[in-house]
Amino acid sequence: MKKHNFNAGPSILPREVIEDTAKAILDFNGSGLSLMEISHRAKDFQPVVDEAEALFKELLNIPEGYSVLFLGGGASMEFCMVPYNFLEKKLLT
GO: which molecular function terms (predicted)? Predict the structure, then answer.
C-alpha cells in the first residue's frame, strides 16, 4: 500500500522521478560524476538550471521580464537578507 505524506515540506513524488534522480546521483548524463559532484557552473549542469527556471515560470505564471533567483538558506535566510544588507558593520559567520 502506497503511503501518502500530508505533512508540511516535501511531498510524494512519482516513482519515475525518484528513479531518475537516483540514477543522476550515481552518474549524471553519463559524465561519470554524480549530480551532487558537478559544479553549478559546469556546462553540463546549465540545462538543469534552465529547465528548473522554465518550470517555475510556467507553474507560477511568472511574466516575461521577471527573473527566478535560486537562493540558499531557505525562508529564514530570505527574511534576514534585506535587513543584513542595511547593516553598517558586516557580521562574521
Answer: O-phospho-L-serine:2-oxoglutarate aminotransferase activity; pyridoxal phosphate binding
Asked if the structure places residue 1 within a domain, the reply is no
Domain that holds residue 76: 15-85
Rounded CA separation 16/3 (Å): 16
Mean pLDDT computed over 3-26: 82
Label each residue of 16-77 as H, E or C: HHHHHHHHHHHCHHHCCCCCCCCCCCCCCCHHHHHHHHHHHHHHCCCCCCCCCCCCCCHHHH
Lowest-confidence range among 28-32, 72-76, 79-83?
72-76
Longest CA pairwise span in the chain (Å): 57
CA distance linking residue 57 with residue 12, whole number of Å: 22
